[in-house]
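Data availability (excerpt). All sequences and predicted token strings are deposited with the supplementary files. A representative entry, Histidinol-phosphatase, is shown inline so that the format can be inspected without opening the archive.
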Amino acid sequence: MSHGHSHPHGHTHGHSHGHSHDHDHTHEHAVDQGDMAPVVDMSIPDSELSPGQVSRRQMFRRAGLLGAGITAAGVLGTPGQAAADSDKAWGRSNCEPRDGYLWLAGDHHIHTQHSSDGMYRVIDHVQHANAYGLDWMVITDHGSVAHAKIGVEKVNPDIVAARKVVKDTLVFQGLEWNIPGAEHGTVFVAPGRNEVSTLKEFENSFDGSVKNATSSTPQNEALAIAGLNFLANAVKKRRVDDALFLANHPARKGLDSPHEIRGWRDAQPTIAVGMEGAPGHQAAGIPKPAGPGGGRGFYDSTPSADSWPGYPAESYKTFGGFDWMTSTVGGLWDSLLAEGKTWWITANSDAHTVYQDSSLRGPNSDFEANGRYNDPVYGGAPVLTQGDFWPGYYSRTHVGAADFGYGAIMDAIRAGRIWVDHGGLISGLIVRAHTSDTRGVTLGGALHVRQGTKVEVSIEITLANRPNWANEIPTLARVDVIQGEVTGPVSDKDTFTTPKTKVVKSFEVNKNTGTVTFKYNVGAVDRPIYVRLRGTDGKRSAPGLLGASVDPHGPAIDVFGDADPWKDLWFYSNPIWILPRR
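Structure token line:
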């Protein structure tokens, strides 16, 4: 698998930042914030902390969280600390080629024959994902009565077996949670002896379908928070080493209100860490008769009684394949980032039934009785009405992990070291915000500087170096720098815009092989800001929904029934914060 990084899987990579990567993953940062202050206050030396506090601080360092400042208050709640200081002894000589991290591609949203609308075996997905270059993946069969009763247990031996067969793609067990009062989300845990029992108890206790708690009521919204609290407690009590939640296709049906998203993240900011910036089902808009002729991402809904009424009509569509919450500059995602909230984006396949595949669901299946369909069989002809791609075939979530392991991937996701792309638009992305004399921080991090310090953002992009699965080598046309002011907590939890975020710089890309580098001069920093990146093949664009002065050339709204995903490619990065202290 030569896909942008070389790592003889399983060996340790000698690039520790002056601390070990032993990944005990106790993750006691799910506890209350009361005793956290000395842990994150880097003016207090380790020698003055209790053994428990030292352990917690080391875990924070491993997870890259001391720079990012993951607290309920967000990045603004972090004591002033030069995040770059700890990197000074970490010279480039002992870095991996990719900025000191293994950038591991993955997918956290995949369905098997254990989903009521699925078909494939676990091994089918794992072998395809491996062949298409994924290093990690999460099996997320739908929460349902049958799944909660028997499916969680039945899928586990298949996952364990796949881990043994395909050793260089890490396979997590998770589930797709019917979030009470909202849409769907990925919930997954670190592998271990309690992965099945924890997921099963979670699903039986907190799944909206199982508990008949799907409608948008305050009681159901509270049940969702209780589910996140359960996961945090499972980690705190060391029942599982780690657990994460990410909201899936958040704008598709208008069910995830802004206040619910804020509520999840604020209740458990180390468990509820983000959302799909781009949904799966990316083949669904391919025109008939060659494709399904539907909404890209199956974003083809209209408001229902449970939809949040404040969302505009455009929010039910994708833009360049990305969810409206992510694709709108100055929109909902930016409104969270402008609060200083750590909230990350991903991109996934949501693979159920694959476009042009010739498999059919196993005959004589009884899903309700068995918790799974019989193994798929050859159907004799490609099926053109299915809207999904195999994991890794089109959508990729790249995470900057300290090593090749389950814990390192979960740490990287939590830390926000993530960029996403469609169709292999680029092969690699390295971003650093730094001053003239520091190495600075990468995606998901917070660079603390003295007020008035000049800051620069360095961008290095490895251009596409081989054909994608449409047999074209994509060409990156433009890279946009999006910058926003951090204005602090909002008074209205249903806020979904922020006025001080816009595209501040665009770089034209005038080559199509090798690497390109760009420098964005932030200038003297006098107020807290964040910066994120977006890139495109330039084939479809339109002014952003908040106007051309905010986003002159953003992704265009996808046309129902006429959205070829290969002719509209984008990448997005997660943000870096730049925070001055007086």
